[in-house]
Amino acid sequence: MVDQAESRPRDTSLARASGAMAVATAVSRISGLLAKVLLVAVLGLGVVNDSYTVANTLPTVVNELLLGGVLTSIAVPLLVRAQQQDEREGEHYAQWMITMGAVLLVAATALAVAAAPLLTQLYLGSDTRANSALTTAFAYLLLPGIICYGLSALLQAILNVRGVFAIPAWAPVLNNLVVIATVAVYALLPGEISLDPVRMGQAKLLVLGIGTALGITAQALAMVLALRRSGFRWRWRWGWDHRLAEFGGLAFWVVLYTAISQLGMIVITRVTAQGTPGSVSTFNYAWLLSQVPYGVLGVSLLTALMPRISRAAGAGRTREFVSDLSLGSRTSAVLLLPISALLVVAGGSLGVAFFSLGASGIDAADRLGVALAAAAVGIVPFAITMLQLRAFYAMKDSRTPTWINLIMVVFRSALCYLCLAVLAPEDLVVGVSLAMSLSFALGAVVGQVWLAARVGGLETGRTLAGLGRALAATAVGCGLSLAAAGAVRAAVAPQDRIVTAWLELLVHCAVLPAVSYGLLALFRAPELAPVLARLRRGRG
Questions:
Q1: Where are the alpha helices (DSSP H) in 423-528?
Q2: FRET label pair with 65: which of 320, 325, 487, 526, CA 20 to 30 Å apart?
């Protein structure tokens, strides 16, 4: 009884923090979407955007390989332990972590910049319609951002351990605002980026590359100021921390997981680069847009559930562990399935409405919308898979998630090369997006079976019942939404395709979620009970 009483304030605090993070994440995603819309309007969906997109992913790839797994499996657990033992010891360990991280990041940045042509070749290959020279030029400007990406992740971990959540959640918004300003300056400059030959000193290329790098720099500086305001004081600390050996095995599997994921992204980039010009950036934008619902709803749900799942796993309370995991899967389906269906049904309209402005043509924008629809098929399986993988980590098992990820990447890569063999170049990006979605559907099934075998049952029947309710409600919502959009299109019959796209998008956004969530509430779906209760408290 005492444990439960003590846990209630912590759960309440966690729920409030999760709500605040959801708001910040929503603003970040919206500002990020605006930045992407402006980039497409100015650059179009062609060779220049492909080159910029590939180069812009390289710093995050290097940072993930260096620090992504290490932060997850080593740095944060040790930081939490040091902070719990002694506040001064926690600060000393944080200082050491920043020192070692900074040294590692500077060395990696120097090597990456020197190897920029090789990195470009690795991601694009030789048989590509992208411009390798322009990609390399952007890479020289953007790869120094490895330092800021890594430090941002390190400082965010330290701030979160110290109970500071607001500024880390809002810092990406600052990054997006800098990118938006950069796009505006780029648009005002006369001329175009030269493709043959590529001139490194060209003003437009420098503005876009340096301005993008300044965005992540501003994000890192916001973290530095927040850490200083929290009372943290910096000093260099050198040497080896003996506690790292305890987590070495765990780190190996998490780093291997990250490496497998990056190999999968190399396959996707190489395959899409053999499509029509702009296919790489089209896939990138479609995938990022499909992640917005999960970033706002799924991550908040995961943040709220993981402490409960971790406590149950740590205490050996299997029944509570299974119950919370089932609840997470069902809630993910109920909350995300109508949004996923909305993006599937209205993907083409959304692409034309938002991305057919400026340098981008209507056909390219429509292809982006169709790719978004294909990527949106995987939103719910992706959310469930991420929950399952975190459940394995809660059981201190980092090996199984790596094997599941390997299964998904191999399946996804095989589908990508199948698409390359049978699809026309203009349809390749849609096939790759669907391959990504199907791989997460496979991952969710494999994860469910693996977890059930591990814990002796996973309330699969209850989970399927919740998924069935969500599917039924969403199917009715889709049918009525398509009928309403068809009626509006027949009544107005405008000649302008962009106007038609906006009308259809507005109808879908008004009808599909309202009908789907309304029916779920009418069905008294238990997964909606916490949401409805919170809304009632808000009105009160």
A1: 428-455, 460-492, 497-522
A2: 325
Question: Are 436 and 303 spatial neighbours (Cβ–Cβ below 8 Å)?
Answer: no
- Identity of the residue numbered 500: T
Rounded Cα–Cα distance for residues 349 and 278 (Å): 19
Peptide bond into 197 cis (omega under 30): yes
348 vs 343: CA distance, rounded Å: 9
What pLDDT, on the 0 to 100 scale, is given for residue 243? 58
Q: Is 390 exposed, middle or buried (0-12, 13-18, 19+ CB in 10 A)?
A: middle
What are the residues whose beta carbons fall under 8 Å from the beta carbon of 361, sequence distance 6 or more? 44, 45
> How would you class 187 by CB atoms within 10 Å of its CB: exposed for 0-12, middle for 13-18, buried for 19 or more?
middle
Please give the pLDDT value at position 499: 87
Residue type, 56: N
End-to-end CA distance of the chain: 30
Q: Per-residue b/e over 115-131, b at no fewer than 16 CB within 10 Å?
A: ebeebbeebbbeebbbb
In the block, residue with structure tokens 């994860």: 447
Contacts of 78 (CB under 8 A, 6+ apart): 93, 241, 243, 244, 247
Helix and strand numbers, DSSP H then E, in the chain? 22, 0
- pTM of the shown model: 0.81
* Low-confidence stretches of the chain (pLDDT beneath 50): 1-15, 535, 538-540
| CA–CA dist 487, 291 (Å, integer) | 30
Residues 265 and 65: their CA atoms lie apart, in Å, by 13
Give the integer Cα–Cα distance in Å for 15 and 21: 10
* Contact status, residue 378 vs residue 341, Cβ threshold 8 Å: no
Which secondary structure element, helix H or strand E, spans residue 325, and what is its range? helix 318-355
pLDDT value at residue 207:
94
Closest residue by Cα to residue 435 from 422, 451, 448: 422
Contact 152, 71 (CB under 8 A): no
User: How far is it, in rounded angstroms, from Cα 120 to Cα 130?
Assistant: 10
Distance of CA 427 to the CA centre of its chain: 24
| Cβ contacts of 159 within 8 Å, gap of 6 or more | 165, 167, 168, 223, 226, 227, 230
- DSSP per residue over 6-75, as a string? HHHHHHHHHHHHHHHHHHHHHHHHHHHHHHHHHHHHHH-SSHHHHHHHHHHHHHHHHHIIIIIHHIIIII
The structure tokens 């409405």 sit at 353
349 token code pair:
């309209």
pLDDT of residue 339: 93
CA atoms lying within 13 Å on the CB side of residue 287? 21
Closest CA to 364 of 347, 352, 346, 381: 352
Nearest to 279 by CA among 127, 117, 427: 427
